[in-house]
Specification:
404 residues
């Protein structure tokens, strides 16, 4: 029994070590690690983000960026420090997946095991970036919601958005779930908790430097369509588009890229709206979890910026799909992770050079990612139909119990 309990943590640790020393999992030939190490060094020396140091991310990511450099900010030292920090959050993701699975009546050990396998599915980008911080905050929020603490859950989503913006995609899904279970009035306090958390942290960044905070927003708003993104691949499929290095990545420019970015943004809004409608009709705990995670993955797969480390958001979706025995969702999620391992960084230079084979491989990866989001969100529709048949017209689910 003890050996079984130790297997999943050992698997995660082995995977983390593989991302450091065994190819293809350890391939870091395309990386921005030196720049982030230098940024951490400046912050640890007393310089403040936005005011003294240009910082393109939301403010809550700054302390974690600096934390990884406590043991040293040379590139090798920072790589090791970052690996330690991200490993801790990887364990957090696995533990939270297990907790959510148990709350949904599923096998928590299976969810932990599936999440522990993530390094073997995705590789070094999971270890060398801080996206798992945001994932932990969103999963903690979902666990709080399942424990009937909606205000705490929405505050955590706000905190997650202040590390990376993606958790905000789950906010309308979560608020719809709260309203469907407890009425429109029940949504007010959680919505205020979300707004207050975001506003407090944003005002903190403004207090450090209004011009620096504005520059960070301008930097993100002016980012071109990233070459790995879905709108980029669609634009390159229909027209010749100029490729330029800017904003720390390779982007494509031109009217077709902008048009596809707007079109896919509209598709994202439509998918989120449908998800909320389906969820309102069947506000089950499972619908909350898969709808929220599906919404975040949809924002990643349809947005104008798609970096390989964003696939960290697919890990909990894959783990919970495995625990739920949702085969289609588990397969497309695993495929998106494995294809990312296959194409990045090995095929990235070929994509930049315009290779047709690289474009096809990235297109299949992105199609798998979109499919994972759609399957996760659409699974709620089936639950809505079952709920309608079982409850009959005009009947609503019981309200949430008052939190103690």
């Amino acid at each position: 029994m003890r050996l079984r309990a130790a297997f999943a943590p050992t698997l995660l640790l082995a995977g983390w070590m593989a991302t450091a020393v065994v190819r293809p999992w350890s391939d870091e030939s395309v990386t921005d690690l030196p720049g982030r190490a230098a940024l951490a060094g400046r912050m640890l020396a007393g310089e403040l983000p936005y005011r003294d140091v240009p910082f393109e991310y939301p403010p809550l990511l700054a302390p974690f960026t600096a934390l990884a450099g406590i043991g040293g900010t040379g590139v090798d030292q920072y790589r090791l420090g970052l690996a330690v920090v991200t490993l801790a959050f990887a364990f957090g993701v696995a533990w939270l997946c297990a907790g959510i699975a148990r709350a949904l009546g599923m096998n928590g050990r299976t969810a932990f095991m599936a999440a522990a396998a993530a390094p073997f599915l995705l590789g070094a980008v999971l270890r060398s970036h801080l996206d798992l911080v945001s994932v932990v905050l969103l999963l903690t929020a979902l666990l709080m919601l399942l424990r009937e603490r909606p205000a705490v859950g929405l505050a955590l989503i706000g905190a997650g958005a202040m590390t990376k913006a993606f958790p905000l995609a789950a906010a309308p899904v979560v608020l719809t779930w709260v309203a469907a279970r407890g009425g429109a009035q029940a949504m007010l306090r959680p919505a205020l908790a979300l707004a207050a958390t975001v506003a407090t942290l944003a005002l903190g960044a403004l207090a450090l430097s209004p011009s620096g905070a504005h520059e960070a927003l301008r930097y993100q708003a002016e980012r071109p369509v990233q070459i790995e993104s879905t709108p980029s691949l669609l634009a390159m499929a229909v027209s010749r588009t100029p490729v330029r290095h800017s904003h720390g990545s390779v982007g494509i420019h031109g009217a077709s890229a902008r048009a596809f970015a707007v079109l896919l943004l509209a598709a994202l809004v439509a998918l989120l709206a449908l998800t909320c409608i389906w969820l309102y009709r069947a506000p089950t705990p499972a619908a909350l979890v898969f709808g929220s995670l599906g919404a975040v993955v949809a924002a990643i797969s349809l947005g104008k910026v798609l970096s390989p480390q964003f696939l960290a958001w697919v890990v909990p979706l894959f783990a919970l799909a495995v625990a739920a025995r949702a085969r289609a969702l588990a397969v497309v999620s695993a495929l998106a992770l494995l294809l990312t391992l296959a194409v990045f960084p090995a095929w990235y230079p070929d994509l930049v050079d315009g290779s047709a084979a690289a474009k096809l491989l990235y297109a299949v990866r992105n199609a798998s990612l979109v499919a994972a989001a759609v399957v996760a969100c659409a699974s709620i529709r089936g639950r809505a139909r079952e709920s309608a048949r079982s409850t009959g017209p005009g009947r609503r689910p019981p309200p949430l119990p008052t939190p103690r």
